[in-house]
Amino acid sequence: MSEYPYSPGLEGVPAGTTAISEIDPSRQKLAYRGYDIEDLADHATFEEVAFLLLEGTLPTTAQFELFKADLVAERSIPDSLIGLFRAMPNDCHPMDTLRTAVSFLGQVDPDVNDNSHAANLRKAKRLTAKTGTCIAAAHRIRQGQEPIAPRADLDHAQNFLFMLTGSVPEDFCAKCFDTSLILYVEHSFNASTFSGRVIVSTTADLHCGVVGAIGALKGPLHGGANEKAMAMFLEIGTPDRAEAFVRDLLARKQRIMGIGHRVYKTGDSRVPTLKRIGQQLGEHFNDLRWVQIADTIETIMREEKNMHPNVDFSCAYVYYYLGLPIELYTPIFAAARVVGWSAHIIEQLDDNRLIRPSCLYNGERGREWVALDQR
After folding, report:
1. Which of 109, 178, 268, 312 is catalytic?
2. Of 108, 169, 264, 374, whose Cβ has the fewest other Cβ atoms within 10 Å?
3. Domains in the chain: how many in total?
4. Sorting pLDDT into bands at 50, 70 and 90, what band is 137?
């Protein structure tokens, strides 16, 4: 027997220390480097939050402008990567495409083999700038369209939507999208972030860590939940069908995607902001059905199971209102989270110790060898 208690899924087991984000156990509130997520979502831009996570402080005006300029300068991706997108099967999952793209970018990054703090910051900024370009270009190629080059006069959120659609988005819609990126950018030792930290604890490079994190995010119990949640909303179709649909799932003991969270027990602190955005978008487009369906599901799950929606549940219909393709919901999550992954990878490598946990053996013992011809 082990002297250490076993917790399936490592639930509640501290696996390291971090100064990047915290989910306050008493308030059940998320903070990035000490700043409440609600304040950042209400007042900051994605670029400001990215600087905060990577550098540790909010930027001054001069630092902010320089950081934005660095991102703009790094948005383009090599023609050879565009060629690789063209060579991929059209039915390739967008997360698989993104995983391959980040691996490719690692091969051409001038700092790929330099694990110094300064080099990792440069790599993090390049990946932050290029990930959205990869997602948009690959999607357009899958649709039989030509990729759209990034524009230097647009901010991070505007530019992604422009590269995806070819149209500059309304300011209101761009702001809603920008806020969603802030809410997705970081979330402590989640499965993908921890995967990235484990990988680089071997002193593998930053791109290796991000590739592994993307693989972990693909799963529907992590990032893929937003796509599954929207599929559920579409299957329900109209608000009058929501209650019967959910109660039927509960009766059959089926999982309600986007409901519940390993850490939050009284509600995900990112959800109120997204619900407000969803309501505003529904009013903006004069279509509140997805908000109404979500409200019904939320009410039933709270009353019947004392469970609450997580960020993927609310972001699903926010992204649908914004006209984003459902198959891109998880890659967009990754485009934001690449900043958080990078911040954690840098933190891990700055004070590294190989992550090598023990396990509890539960197999047979004392078995005797039997020759092949006697088995």
Report:
1. 312
2. 374
3. 1
4. very high
